[in-house]
Write a structure and sequence with these properties.
about 300 residues; alpha/beta; Arc Repressor Mutant, subunit A; D-Maltodextrin-Binding Protein, domain 2; 10-stranded mixed β-sheet; two-stranded antiparallel ribbon; about 40% helix; LysR family transcriptional regulator
């Protein structure tokens, strides 16, 4: 029984497909099939049911899978322990981020500096909503994420607030609200609003504030990029709720109103796993980014 066979078996079980598993492993599909067949012959049982459109575990496969994963985890742990003793950091890390970070977070610069310090670590980057990013951190599929608050944080996830600024309302220069300097949520209740989609920190803050005031906002447009929200407002398609730093970037084309009663704030935070297994590469990444971004919590 070889570790390679256990790795191929566990990957096919996770992907439920030989082709996807081979692509993930960066090997040819016949090689994956052949190694799993060898493992099945050694164990004397079929581990995978190949009769359907998707590959499923047999009863024997379901029994073997936890042991295969444990063996692979033990080997990875042994390698990490030796690397740490030798002062080496290598492996893979995944960083998640919301779409727009604003001027205070230079994520490409942070990742470039980390790569310079740890060239043996492969770094991946993904974009998603705050809710999904927090879940990815909690389950270990993402090592560090920049998320918008407020959002529910499950146990085992730690946070460091790195941006804290007011949320404001922006409208086109010809909008009736352009004669005012501030607006309440109630004053916006009957107007078409432009906002980030559900699951984002900004939208959660807006929805919670409206619910507390007994209001139901009229969301006319949703977009995942705050810059798109501002450009929609420039075209006169509604009032957009955006972070103040973004609004200032469009001050020549938009009128900015202070949002009052209640005053809302946009917060961005680093999120990382504080419980469960965390490898040395992920620990180094978290240390690097936390040290580079001041805690504004």
């Amino acid at each position: 029984m070889e570790l390679r066979q256990l790795e191929y078996f566990a990957t096919v079980a996770e992907e439920a497909n030989f082709t996807r598993a081979a692509a993930r492993l960066h090997v040819a599909q016949p090689g994956v099939s052949a190694q799993i067949r060898k493992l099945e012959r050694e164990l004397g049982q079929e581990l995978l049911d190949r009769s359907g459109r998707t590959v499923r575990l047999t009863e024997a496969g379901a029994a073997v899978l936890p042991y295969a994963r444990a063996a692979l985890a033990a080997v990875a742990g042994a390698r990490e322990a030796v690397d740490e003793l030798a002062g080496l950091v290598r492996g893979q890390v995944t960083v998640g981020t919301v779409t727009s970070l604003g001027p205070d977070i230079d994520l490409p610069g942070l990742l470039a500096a980390f790569h310079h310090d740890h060239p043996a670590v492969e770094t991946g980057l993904t974009e998603d909503t705050s809710d999904r990013l927090v879940h990815a951190v909690a389950t270990g599929s993402t090592d560090l994420a920049v998320i918008g608050l407020p959002t529910a944080t499950p146990p085992g996830v730690a946070l460091q607030v790195v941006v804290d600024e007011p949320l404001v309302v922006v409208v086109g220069r010809d909008d009736p609200l352009a004669a005012r300097t501030s607006a309440t949520l109630r004053a916006l209740a009957d107007r078409p609003l432009i906002s980030l989609p559900p699951g984002t920190g900004l939208r959660t803050a807006l929805d919670h504030a409206c619910a507390a005031a007994g209001l139901r906002p009229r969301i006319a447009f949703e977009a995942g990029d705050p810059n798109v929200l501002a450009r929609l407002a420039v075209r006169g398609l509604g009032a957009a709720v955006v972070p103040e730093s973004l609004a200032r970037c469009y001050a020549d084309r938009l009128h900015i109103l202070t949002l009052t009663r209640p005053r809302l704030r946009g917060r961005l935070a680093l999120a990382w796993r504080s419980a469960g297994p965390v490898g040395p590469a992920a620990r180094a990444l978290v240390r690097h980014v936390r040290a580079a971004l001041p805690d504004r919590g």
